Amino acid sequence: MTRSQHPIPGAVHPLDRDGLRGRVNDALAAFMDRQSAVLADVGEGMAPVAEALRDFLVDGGKRLRPGFCYWGWRGAGGVDAGPAGDAAVRAATSLELLQASALIHDDLMDSSDTRRGKPAVHRRFEALHRASGWCSNAAGFGEAAAVLLGDLCLSWSDEMFSGSGVDPAALAAAKPLFDVMRTEVMAGQYLDVLEQAMGGGSVERSRRVIRFKSAKYTIERPLHVGAALAGAGPELLVAYSAYGLPLGEAFQLRDDVLGVFGDPAETGKPAGDDLREGKRTVLLALAAERGTAAQRRIVDELLGDPALDDAGVKDLQGVIAGTGALAEVEAMIGTLTERALAALDSAAVTADARTVLHELAEAATVRRV
Amino acid sequence: MTRSQHPIPGAVHPLDRDGLRGRVNDALAAFMDRQSAVLADVGEGMAPVAEALRDFLVDGGKRLRPGFCYWGWRGAGGVDAGPAGDAAVRAATSLELLQASALIHDDLMDSSDTRRGKPAVHRRFEALHRASGWCSNAAGFGEAAAVLLGDLCLSWSDEMFSGSGVDPAALAAAKPLFDVMRTEVMAGQYLDVLEQAMGGGSVERSRRVIRFKSAKYTIERPLHVGAALAGAGPELLVAYSAYGLPLGEAFQLRDDVLGVFGDPAETGKPAGDDLREGKRTVLLALAAERGTAAQRRIVDELLGDPALDDAGVKDLQGVIAGTGALAEVEAMIGTLTERALAALDSAAVTADARTVLHELAEAATVRRV
């Protein structure tokens, strides 16, 4: 999703303050230049890999995790000037490579056809196989390529982090937080897959998945990594958790609502894709808990049907709204966002970071950033 | 493969010198203890993940890459005493986590059923799904779990490396070599998948795949990482390349021969598995180049047939031997090993490392270590 799709009248988008998204892009482009040369040394067959990753990384994505990392660093007193500022931006940008790995592997596991309105990586390589007239299994080739391209992004993420140029002592302080962030997001992904397999998840179990897969990964840990890069102590990490965890949960709940009710032109995904996938969100868990027997039957019947048509999407939307689940989730988003903002008010962060983190909270929960 | 399957009469296996394999095992077990606690914090659903990874990592594998890394360090003057010695062993052990990730993802891409005589990770989680009576797709659950468990091992690999306790300046010198090793092995894997897709690979193209996927990854780069951990300069890296690249190629050629002619009790894989998979090895490329039209027809017909029976395996073995491809590959193994040993003789390495690297070269090419 790009900024142009979400203009904020009369204001710079909070993720664009101090030119951050442009700098993240530049850092990724420079990194891809170096890696493309390494790949070219391996063989000419690597060109489609370099091209696909450049397309995926440069000018793609919201840059939410680099944004929270960078403002976590600024909030802890990081001074964005000269080479040290650029090094911190590179360290923050490394989270975008982790996110690219997670998305490439996620699309593979979900068999999603598209990502940001373009073919998912496994589909892109499946198409390359078909167009090249190669032998055997095109889908299998696409899947193998997606496994390996996701692996490349995952290892490049810590390569960019540790090679960012940030002072070694600060890097060493931040690395354990970077590490636990990765374990948590992968474990959260597994819990998510497990929930889909077990079916009929409770609201409580769905919220646990959100906590690890989204709230910690998207907001809390990036803030922690940024704070540690600026040499912050444990008090600020606690304050960032008090802001980041409720905000991260609110952000995911907003994403879930948009996954069912969002405008495809804004979300970049076909309407009802989350419903066809059978995603067990808090929204769906609430609808099942609050619904009548007839409403539950509609959910059981339609949710996860890969052939779900527009009428089916409308039926499910009707149940989710009619049970009061939608209103309840909207209320949760409001409460969680207020809690995050209250924690931010009492956190010992720099004034400019407080302003931007406030704007980010609104952007992430009122609408998609 | 465990040592007990490959006793060397009257001698300690070179990978066991100075108790290395026991220490690698201990380091992995201690690391898994810590990670199991992190996973348990995410939720009780994570227990099978921790258990599967412990089973995979502890007491499994030959520890070839940690071995070359450790002896690369010793050869460069690393002194194995006290905490610094244990830190170097931990840094070397981190390569085993990278290898675990590669194997878990490789088995997934190849749809292999077994690894080291036990179910492959994706099959293990498919079986968990079936035994638990969960809903929807058991195979899809197994595949998603394998993607995520491989990702965990990949990120844990650099976590263990950077958290090994090795002196920060030495770690910083070794990290770029660690990084390029990862990019090379993933790129090599992609080239391998590409070769299978394109079919009918030449001997030259097959050797390029070996170079990146095996020779650099298994031997040259682990030696380089070890050397850099001991503060070695570029001359020693060049000498290690002159030893490691031909040896690594010889090692892979031996592996390819064993993949076709090896005893299942020793290789841990069913006889002919590489043939059923349609692996395009140098051995097969040579057989196709040297064969008569009739012999080529047998290869085209049988290679890559998933239902290949014992008679078919025997037919292919007959062609590979009959074309002279087997003898030619055995001669290549001999020449490459001699070249590696000659380079070792003139390398400026410590005496004890020279002895063990000599033994490792023999163990890796005469038979499987």
From TrEMBL, chains A, B:
Record bears the keyword Transferase: yes
PROSITE patterns hit by this protein: POLYPRENYL_SYNTHASE_1, POLYPRENYL_SYNTHASE_2
SUPFAM superfamilies: Terpenoid synthases
Cofactor: Mg(2+)
CDD domains: Trans_IPPS_HT
Source organism: Yinghuangia aomiensis
Sorted UniProt keywords: Magnesium, Metal-binding, Transferase
Keyword Transferase: yes
UniProt xrefs under Pfam families: polyprenyl_synt
InterPro entries: Isoprenoid_synthase_dom_sf (IPR008949), Polyprenyl_synt (IPR000092), Polyprenyl_synt_CS (IPR033749)
Protein name: Polyprenyl synthetase family protein
Protein family per UniProt: Belongs to the FPP/GGPP synthase family.
